[in-house]
Structure formats: structure tokens, C-alpha cells
Amino acid sequence: MLSGGRANAVHAHTNMAEPMELLCWGGDWDLPSVHTDSLIVLAYAKFSGAKLAVKSIDWTWRTITASVPQLHWEGSTVTEPAQILNFLRKQRFNADYELTAKQGADTMAYIALLEEKLRPALLHTFWVDAENYVNLTRPWFTSHSPFPLNFFVPGRQASLALSRILLTKAESPLLNITEVEGKIYSEAKECLNLLSHRLGNFHFFFGDTPTSLDAFVFGHIAPLIKAPLPSGQLQKHLNQLENLCQFCNTILKNYFTDAAAEKRMDCSLTATHDPVDANLQKLTQLVNKESNLIEKMDDNLRSSPQHRPHRHETKPSALASERNSPLLSKH
Amino acid sequence: MSLAAEAFVSQIAAAEPWPENATLYQPLKEDQILLSDSASSLAVQTFLRMCGLPVLVSCRANAEYMSPSGKVPFIHVGNQVVSELGPIVQFTKAKGHSLSDGLDDVQRAEMKAYMELVNNMLLTAELYIQWCDDHTATEISRPRYSSPYSWPLNHILAYQKQWEVRRKMNAIGWSGKSLEQVYEDVSQCCQALSQRLGTQPYFFSKQPTELDALVFGHLFTILTTQLTNDELAEKVKSYTNLLSFCHRIEQTYFKEHERESQSGSSRHSKGSLP
């Protein structure tokens, strides 16, 4: 077992025969993936410097056959985020090597807290709440599954989510989902408050470098922040916790913008089927970089303590600036 | 209970002081109670002792059905019935007794996180070993669970309970785990607890909190209960500071009571620690 020395655990093992392949759900709403578990693995891979070949299972039969996320490497397959993280650690991609023993124990405890308190409410928000399910989740998963699976996949996920909530949270008198709702949402809000207290004013949960706990928290709250939910009381509560929103945006900006910008570039390049002038390609890339820089500067200005504009004003302008940059890159 | 009803109940709770005849109900100690229920019951008893609140332990064969939420143990205080450690902690807080008042927000977050860790890992592992491992289920769990009932009810109830627990394990993804993996999880959980405890007397230095009660309940029960093999107890024994933690709490809260009151009503089923 390659437990990896603490000193050199961060440096990526670049002389591997083939890259590791990760199967996960596709991305939307500015996220690399809409699925919590896939996001956890993607975030951890970025933090630890592991190079993963990400294959999205959208529009393939794997939407119903595979349990996502799945990591393939040299014939072995690993599923479940915790197992995948263990596997990556054994391959010397360790983002936790700087943690003390107590911090490692804290990580386990907080992950258990997330699983017990936050996940049922997340499942409910996306899969059981009628308005969200009909208007957002089901159309998204239906449009990202091939025919004829698009009839089965969302329904199956929804019934799995409902049964999980009922079996773990509903005790025998409370067999009705509506009575459990109040309980799971209040527990989830409490959990978010606890996380916010723990994070405080730091960038990440343990100092200045992200660790596996940051990956887990990011995976759980990022879809909640970014998804355009029609009825989202939990989302409203989360938006009030500014440090968690900042945490999520920081990770997206620092670790995932390159991927998002590449995707946008790919889309803009493939849209023009005729052979594109090499100069035009270079110009597009330059414009993309400029717009990214402008976004970063904007964000820095906005987050500086002296000039903190009112919450409602920042939201529309942030959306506006993000809408402008795709328009810029298309030219 | 809806949130409004809970708030109403806690208002009523705050009005009366703790009565002398508060009772805790659990399944029959010698014949019926299983590892996980015994652990939860001991955790509640320890918590109440730490708060200095007197409670009588009463064993009933149908305790599970009497409970408002279907889980044991539950306490009957005045004219209210509250089950499970979480609501009981809130209930005693409404009455003015609390162990975690001295903690700040970050510590409280840590305490809740560690309590969830114990519930998530240790309790689930106990349930898995009892009901999903065929050997243990056949030898120990089913006979014990159904001992107060006659044929054919005992078979029906035992299989029903087993089916329920297996469904739950399926839903949270534990059904694919092997027994070795479960033991490994228990070991990791104990390692995390051991590292958090370090050399301190309690998890949050000087004063015990509900986390200490919960951890003691589970670890003591694991160490003193006879299963088909001793592997679970061995995993816990390998962490010496957890062993001394259990000894210390047993000495402080249970042995003194034994010397004061001559009745053995609150002794644990298999005797004290080796």
C-alpha cells in the first residue's frame, strides 16, 4: 500500500502509464457537475493535483447502468466518493498531508455531520419538492439522458431519494413526508449555521490550503447555491451565510474557471464549422483571458471591506457581468 | 411532531421542575435488549447522571412500541414522554439543566459533528453487525429480540425487524459492505475519537458533555457485550485512552451510585469492564 511520505505527497505522480478516468454527471449552472458526489471527487482532484480524464455520462446508457462517480485506472474500478478519495490518497495525491491528527478526526466528524443533517434536505430540495422537481431537476436529467432512458432515470432517482429520506429520518408515527420536511429543513439550516461558524473568516476550513473536508462541503453546497431553484427556502438561508457563498465562489474561481473557460471556448470554436483563421483563434483566446481577468478584478473590488455594496445590488450586477463575458467570447 | 408542537411542549416543560419519579423505559435487560438499544439506553442514563437528575430504569418487553418515535430508550417525566438522546437533551435544556452551556459556537459545532460521527458510524455498524450479518442475526439478535413472545409471533416480529433494518442499510449504501469493511469503519471512528480525546479527561477538557455520555454509552456496551466473536471489542480495546475514558466515567458516575443505593437496578447487563 502506497501510503506516501508526508513530504512529497503533494507532487503529482506524472509518470503514469495512462491517466485516471472519472465518470460523472455533466455540468451546468457554472458548475463542472450538477451531482454532489461527482463534485466532491472533482474538487478533491483539483486540490490534490491529480490529473483526471473526466468523462461525462450524459446522453449515454451509463446514466442507468453506472453508479456515479466511478474512477477507472489500470483495470480497477472504485465507486463512492470516500473510497475514491482513499484511492487517490494511496496513489500519492493527498491534499490532507498537512493536517494534524486532531484535524483529521475533525474532518471525519464534519463529513458525518454533512451526511446526516444536510444531505436529506438536499435530496428533498432537488428530488422530492414538487415545484423544484417538475421545473428544474426532472427537465435537466431528462434532457441529459438518451432516449428511452429519459423516461426512467429521473423517476428512479426521485424514488431512491424519497425512500432514503423516509427510512433514515421518518420514525414510525411520521410516515408522511410532509411531517418529516419541517424536521429535516430545520436540521439542515442548523448544519449550515454550524459550518458557517466553523469556517469563520478563513478561506478554507483548515487554514489556507483546501483539504478533503473543503471538497465535501463544496460538493454539498455548490449545487444549492448555483441552481436556479423555483422554491428554495434552504437556498435563501444559505445565501444569507456570506462566508459559505464566498467559499464556494473562491473554489470555483481558483480551481474551475480554466475548465469553464475552456468549455466556453470549445463551444465557440466548434460552432464555426468552416476553417477558422489562426489569427482569429488567437484573438478569441486573448479576449477570453481579458474577460477572466476583469471578472477577477471585479470580484476583488467587490469583496474588499471598505466598498461593500448592498447585497441586492451585487447579485444582478454579478449575473450581468457573467452574462457579458460569454457574449464577448463569441465575437 | 411538528415544529410548533415541539415549541409548545418545551414551553410546558420549562414550567415544571424535574420530578422524583422520572422513569426510563428500555427492553428487558437480561433477555431481550440488543447491543444498539443497550448502547443508546446507557448513553441516556449517563447523560442524566451527569446532569444530576434522578431517573428510575424500568424494563418492559414492549418498550419499543410504547415509545413515541419507535426508538428506545424513552423517558417519562411528569406527563411528557420523550425518546432518543437528541430530544432528551433539548428537553432537559428546557428544564434548565444543560451540560454544554459553557461551549462557544465553534466548540458546539464540533460537539454536534462528533455526535453525528458516532451515530453515523458506530450506531450504524452496530445495527449492521446485529441484523445484516447472518451468523449474528441467527444466533443472537433474532432469538433475543423475540424472546418475550410466543410462536408464531416471535418469528414474525424478528423477521420484520430484520427486514426493516436491512432496508435502511440498503438506502444508505451499507448493504454492499462486507463485515471486514464495517470493522474497519469502526476502527477509523474509534481512531478519530481517540485522537480528538487525546490526553484530556473529557472531550471538552474539564466538564463532561452529552458527547461524552454518547461515546461512553456505545463504547462501554461494545466492550462488555458478548457477540459471536470478539473482533468488535478488540478494535475498541486497541485505543488505550478510550479504555481509560470509559473506566473513568464508570468510576465517577456509576460506582458511586452503587455504593450509595444498595439496589442493583442500574447495573449493566454483563458486569463491569475487565
UniProtKB/TrEMBL annotation, chain A:
It is found in: Mitochondrion outer membrane. Residues 322-331 have a biased composition (Polar residues). It comes from the Eukaryota. Its main location: mitochondrion. One of its GO terms (cellular component) is SAM complex. GO terms for biological process: mitochondrion organization; protein transport. InterPro entries: Glutathione-S-Trfase_C_sf (IPR036282), Metaxin1/3 (IPR017410), Metaxin_GST (IPR033468), Mito_Protein_Transport_Metaxin (IPR050931), Sam37/metaxin_N (IPR019564). The keyword Membrane applies. Residues 38-156 form the Mitochondrial outer membrane transport complex Sam37/metaxin N-terminal domain. Residues 300-331 are annotated as: Disordered. It comes from Carassius auratus. This is Metaxin. Residues 188-251 form the Metaxin glutathione S-transferase domain. Keywords: Membrane, Mitochondrion, Mitochondrion outer membrane, Protein transport, Transport. Pfam families: GST_C_6, Tom37. Belongs to the metaxin family.
UniProtKB/TrEMBL annotation, chain B:
One of its GO terms (biological process) is protein transport. Signal peptide: none annotated. Residues 41-162 form the Mitochondrial outer membrane transport complex Sam37/metaxin N-terminal domain. GO terms for cellular component: SAM complex. Residues 187-249 form the Metaxin glutathione S-transferase domain. CDD domains: GST_C_Metaxin2, GST_N_Metaxin2. Keywords: Acetylation, Membrane, Mitochondrion, Mitochondrion outer membrane, Protein transport, Transport. It comes from the Eukaryota. It is found in: Mitochondrion outer membrane. Belongs to the metaxin family. PANTHER family: METAXIN RELATED, METAXIN-2. Interacts with MTX1/metaxin-1. Associates with the mitochondrial contact site and cristae organizing system (MICOS) complex, composed of at least MICOS10/MIC10, CHCHD3/MIC19, CHCHD6/MIC25, APOOL/MIC27, IMMT/MIC60, APOO/MIC23/MIC26 and QIL1/MIC13. This complex was also known under the names MINOS or MitOS complex. The MICOS complex associates with mitochondrial outer membrane proteins SAMM50, MTX1 and MTX2 (together described as components of the mitochondrial outer membrane sorting assembly machinery (SAM) complex) and DNAJC11, mitochondrial inner membrane protein TMEM11 and with HSPA9. This is Metaxin-2. It comes from Carassius auratus.
